[in-house]
């Protein structure tokens, strides 16, 4: 199962991470996570279900472009980090 | 006279308490997070705070115990099939419905969606009829990259009549609780448009509109290109010509007297700061025929304070006013704006002031 970590800025919203989730892509992993943690979905995705402009996802040490992040393939040992982009600060 | 005020600021929701030594910050909620709008609903005392996270979007919280604890509510969202596929950027204003509508709240947003709740903010519905008006194609941003709704004024005689102001999309009214809308604004002139389009109602930039509860047909507008007054609930507008700058953002109306209003002048739009570094508040008490300006207690040199559109409030008596500036200063007047007392010069940029 992939492991999903959230930025410490979201600790008040999801205090109990990291989370183990199934999924073959970043999008599948996040969808599975949001099913159990709906309270964090709106912090990561906008009304349209897209990654927020100033949120970025790292998978196994690589920053993913927001436009293609959901389709990025991951493995059972993958580590995902959902971070705030400095552009939004 | 109010003893408490709420400030929506760049760095949180501040609650200030009036004591013998002046106003002090009694509490800071949501420290570090921008609070783009704040409301205390007089119906039940609930306080609502709209947050604007730099990274994580617009959020909404409610306190039922005067700020002691907060509950996050579902922020309004544009339905998936909304024309133009918008996404909520910012909650720009929060207002309560009429006294016969407990639990009714309105949100004006960027982009310019109007949202309605009838369950104290637990769920929200986009007012489709306003979003779907054909004129929306002509709206554009004023200060932001998109048009937005910053003023929502339910009619105190009939809360099914609601007036909204859009920058830049003119002023609109529903008389059937949002089912249908008409654009008003005859007499408004947009100096930022080519001459042949300057009088078009649907592209006007009303920075802020205020209405007197005791004389609800009277409205006052600080427009991007001047100041206006209406005596027919916003259908038609007449220009006001004070003997100083007619640019600015903030305006408040006297709660009973339809001839009295206050504005905060600034140099026009390329500059957006007090003329000669001197901050003044202006008042008319005769419907705009004559004007007074007040500077006692306000900085008269080197001031860059701009009072933004939600940065001035007035209490129910019409004698206490407060102004909060973009550079983080707060002043309170307890004699109808004639003299001001500095409450704090070191606050974050202030977006909204609410005397409660």
Note down, in words, how this protein is organized.
The complex is a heterodimer of chains A (89) and B (356). Chain A has a single domain, classed as Ubiquitin-like (UB roll). In chain A, 20% of the residues lie in helices and 25% in strands. Chain A has two helices and five strands, in the order ββααβββ. Chain A has a five-stranded mixed sheet with strand order 2-1-5-3-4. In chain A, strand 3 and strand 4 form a beta hairpin. Chain A is globular and about 30 Å long. The model of chain A has no long low-confidence stretch (mean pLDDT 93). Chain B has a single domain, classed as YVTN repeat-like/Quinoprotein amine dehydrogenase (Methylamine Dehydrogenase, Chain H, 7 Propeller). Chain B is built from one helix and 28 strands. In chain B, strands 3-2-1-28 form a four-stranded antiparallel sheet, with no helix packed on it. In chain B, a hairpin with a 6-residue loop joins strand 24 and strand 25. Chain B is globular, with a radius of gyration of 19 Å. Chain B starts with a strand and ends with a strand. The chains are: A alpha+beta (89), B mainly beta (356). Chains A and B meet through helix 2 of A and loops of B.
């Amino acid at each position: 199962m992939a492991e999903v970590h959230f930025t410490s800025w979201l600790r008040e919203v999801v205090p109990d991470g990291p989370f183990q989730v199934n999924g073959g892509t970043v999008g599948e992993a996040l969808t599975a996570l949001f099913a159990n943690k709906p309270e964090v979905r709106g912090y990561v995705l906008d009304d349209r279900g897209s990654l927020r402009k100033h949120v970025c996802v790292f998978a196994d040490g690589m920053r993913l472009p927001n436009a293609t992040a959901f389709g990025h393939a991951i493995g059972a040992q993958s580590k995902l980090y959902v971070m705030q982009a400095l552009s939004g600060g | 006279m109010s003893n408490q005020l709420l400030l929506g600021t760049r760095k949180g929701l501040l609650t200030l308490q009036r004591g013998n030594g002046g106003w002090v910050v009694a509490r800071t909620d949501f420290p570090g997070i921008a609070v783009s709008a704040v409301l205390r609903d007089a119906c039940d005392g609930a306080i609502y705070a709209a947050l604007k996270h730099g990274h994580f979007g617009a959020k909404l919280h409610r306190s039922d115990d005067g700020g002691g604890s907060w509950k996050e509510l579902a922020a309004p969202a544009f339905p998936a099939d909304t024309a133009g596929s918008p996404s909520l950027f910012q909650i720009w204003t929060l207002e309560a419905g009429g006294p016969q509508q407990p639990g009714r709240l309105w949100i004006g947003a960027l982009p310019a969606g109007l949202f309605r709740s009838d369950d104290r903010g637990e769920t929200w519905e986009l007012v489709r009829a306003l979003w779907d008006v054909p004129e929306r194609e002509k709206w554009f941003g004023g200060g932001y990259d998109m048009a937005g709704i910053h003023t929502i004024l339910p009619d105190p005689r009939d809360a099914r009549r609601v007036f909204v102001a859009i920058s830049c999309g003119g002023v609109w009214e529903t008389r059937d609780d949002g089912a249908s809308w008409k654009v008003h604004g005859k007499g408004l002139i947009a100096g930022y448009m080519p001459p042949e389009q300057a009088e078009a109602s649907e592209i006007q930039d009303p920075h802020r509109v205020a209405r007197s509860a005791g004389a609800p047909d009277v409205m006052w507008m600080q427009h991007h290109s001047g100041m206006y007054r209406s005596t027919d609930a916003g259908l038609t507008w007449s220009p006001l010509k004070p003997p100083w700058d007619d640019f600015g953002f903030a305006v408040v109306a006297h709660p009973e007297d339809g001839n009295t209003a206050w504005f905060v002048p600034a140099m026009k739009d390329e500059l957006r700061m007090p003329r000669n570094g001197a901050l003044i508040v202006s008042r008319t008490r005769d419907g705009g025929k004559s004007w007074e300006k007040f500077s006692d207690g306000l900085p008269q040199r080197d001031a860059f304070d701009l009072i933004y559109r939600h940065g001035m409030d007035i209490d129910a008596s019409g004698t206490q006013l407060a102004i909060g500036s973009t550079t983080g200063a707060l002043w309170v007047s307890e004699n109808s704006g004639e003299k001001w007392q500095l409450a704090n010069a070191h606050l974050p940029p202030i977006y909204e002031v609410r005397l409660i």
